[in-house]
Amino acid sequence: MDRADIVDKAFRTRLAAGDFPSGHPAQGPLDASVAKEIFRAQCLSRNLDRRSRKMQAEGQSFYTIGSSGHEGMAAVAAALRPNDMAFLHYRDGAFQTMRSTQVPGTDATRDMLLSFASSSEDPISGGRHKVLGSKALAIPPQTSTIASHLPKAVGAAYSIGLAQRHPPEHQELAKDGIVMCSFGDASSNHSTAQGAINSACWTSYQSAPMPLLFVCEDNGIGISTRTPTGWIAANYNAKPGLKYFHANGLDIFDTYRAAKDAADYVRKFRKPAFLHVSLVRLYGHAGSDLQQAYLKKEIFEGWEGDDPLLHSARLLIENGIFTADDVLDIYQETEDRCATGAAEVVKRSRLNSASDVMASIIPPKRICSASNSPSRETRQATFGFDFKQLNSPQPMSRLLNWALTDLMLEHGEIVMMGEDIGRKGGVYGVTQKLIERFGPGRMIDTLLDEQSILGLAIGMAHNGFVPMPEIQFLAYLHNAEDQLRGEAATLPFFSNGQFSNPMVLRIAGLGYQKGFGGHFHNDNSLAVLRDIPGVIIACPSRGDEAAMMLRESVRLAREENRVVVFVEPIALYPMRDLIAEKDGEWMRPYPALDQQIKLGSVGVSGTGPLAILTYGNGRYLSTQAAADLQDQGIETRVIDMRWLAPLPVEGILEALQGVERVLIVDECRSTGSQSEALMAMLAERTKLPHARIAAEDSFIATGPAYAATLPSRTSISAAAQKLLET
């Protein structure tokens, strides 16, 4: 027999016999009316779990990880306000069923059953996943099993205080609100959780507002691996900057008391708290998990004997709030409601095409107020001495700095965050003077943790900011890429476009730095970014175009809710000369404020029949090679893709009109590089002879061999001549 049916039968039998597990009498501030609602929410969550398993057995439900044993989380929901944003653990069905009672017009039963059935009418994911979440309930959808939602919870909490000083146009969170995030005892050991909790404590330790409630749901096991007894309390009850609270999650009165104390502390002092809730796990990890394969029978039968619903029934009956018959009636009514609802939702429509599934990858646009461009006087005062140099040719790093200045002047919701971006002005000086111009509230020097940087950005975007996080070097992104892949890019997808976390992520990257740092500071691989659906990748090659592309990137984030990765070629930051020493040909004046380079627009230099298709450093080197080829009577046109994802196919094809041959120059590694997609596109969409030159499948060395594995001016010229000979 299914363990869910065994637990159901035991609940009914023991309730009728008055055979309740032992426990303390009810104590605390929970009044009878709220206690009744909590119990109803607990029963609904339990029967939704059981119904999901039955639907799966009938082939009508497709993901049955449940919340049974964690019904105490209904008391946590009751202790919070319904507009306190909650990033939930996947076992928090009872939290959502309870919060639904606090928000008129929501129907937890139908909503969750539609999710179980993967119906396209599911109000949160549109049938894309079985997720907890609701826009009306301030619960962004969350599928993480390894606490990857904790960094963004830190960011959302931090944004509440910042919004009081710099209120964004699309602010979502109340100024006296708090943010709650929950996770399991096993997940608390993950580096993501450790980093997020440390970030919150690090921030709080410096007296910055951090109204965040961590809730650890401790059932003593992670899939099959037991958590050492006492580990959670020992790890978190004396952590600097973090107030520890404990609750018996089997006792709704004690859980409500502890949760209310913790929430009140966070709300009053604007400091983080850690609520440790002791629970049990029923039915195993998920529907397909056979816990008898790795647990002794007496262990999981002991957990079943401590059924939270029996504990709640005892407390409610002892206090005269319900009779045993009342309890059974509520339990049976929720079971009947779930059965009736399930029979109806399995008849509802489901996604059945690629276009249906993909419809929410790109979030809907949002209405933004027209920006009031700063006056000449304001700009002059902000730029200071730099204002006099705007019309003189400058390298990329300086032009990016000026573009950031103008963008932050125009849009008060832009906030930058990253390692050393404030006081130091960035490793390469790109953000110099910005902290003096805009203050530490909008130029945040973070701790050295890329997960926390991206989580801060994602969370702040939940509250209407337009974050511009910086990752110091491209190779450092790999420490945190799941924050893009698993969190930022998937949020619109799993929320059917109801939630989004737009940002412009600036990354200093690519190769050609002379003798500096080897492959950690010269990383010529963008593959990890290119295959994330919905993410835009920009890669400028010259300073004026970088400024114009950055303006478009901010527009895409601010108005279209997009996640944009802006890759800045480090080697081109200081580049001044092109062909000869001190010719200054790679510098440009700062472009006028109304000039932008739109998404998908490619750049073309020359009109020759030989096209060199490239980007980034490749554009600079190809321009040099084009000069050498011209000396040999070979006319070229250099096409700069500028936008690497989505691939600007139509712009490239238009730029290829009149071309006879195409050479692709790709500074990334041959395997997994843009050149692979470009070769396929040319083969599928044209009949042009084409070839490619790309970097070797190698890491980059430090010292004199820094460019040995990369395309060069000479190798590009040679490859072009070889292509012409075919």
Present the secondary structure layout:
Layout: H1 3-17, H2 32-57, H3 73-79, E1 86-87, H4 93-102, H5 108-116, E2 132-134, E3 139-142, H6 150-165, E4 179-184, H7 191-205, E5 212-218, E6 221-222, E7 225-226, H8 231-236, E8 243-248, H9 252-269, E9 273-278, H10 297-305, H11 308-318, H12 324-345, H13 354-358, H14 376-383, H15 396-410, E10 414-418, H16 434-438, E11 443-445, H17 450-462, E12 466-471, H18 481-488, H19 491-494, E13 503-509, H20 527-530, E14 536-538, H21 543-560, E15 563-569, E16 603-605, E17 610-614, H22 617-631, E18 636-640, E19 643-645, H23 649-655, E20 661-669, H24 674-685, E21 690-695, H25 713-725
Parallel strand pairs: 1-4, 4-5, 5-9, 8-9, 10-11, 10-12, 12-13, 13-15, 14-15, 17-18, 17-20, 20-21
Antiparallel strand pairs: 2-3, 6-7, 14-19, 16-18
Helix pairs in contact: 2-4, 2-5, 2-11, 2-12, 3-4, 3-9, 5-12, 6-7, 6-17, 15-21, 17-18, 22-25
Describe, in plain words, how this protein is organized in 3D.
By secondary structure, this protein is an alpha/beta fold. It is 40% helix and 14% strand. The protein contains 25 helices and 21 strands. It has a seven-stranded mixed sheet. The chain has a five-stranded parallel sheet with strand order 1-4-5-9-8. A five-stranded mixed sheet has the order 16-18-17-20-21, sandwiched between helices. Helix 2 packs antiparallel against helix 11, helix 3 packs parallel to helix 4 and helix 6 packs parallel to helix 7. It is elongated. The mean pLDDT is 95.
Radius of gyration using CA atoms only: 29 Å
**Cα distance spanning the termini:** 72 Å
Proportion of beta-strand residues: 5-15%
Which stretches are low in confidence, meaning pLDDT under 50 for 5 or more residues running?
Answer: none
Number of helices: 25
* Percent helix range: 40-55%
- Let me know the average pLDDT: 95
Total strands:
21
Structural class: alpha/beta
What is the overall shape?
A: elongated
Trace the largest sheet across and list its strands. Answer: 11-10-12-13-15-14-19
The largest sheet, given as strand count, sense and whether it forms a barrel, is: 7 strands, mixed
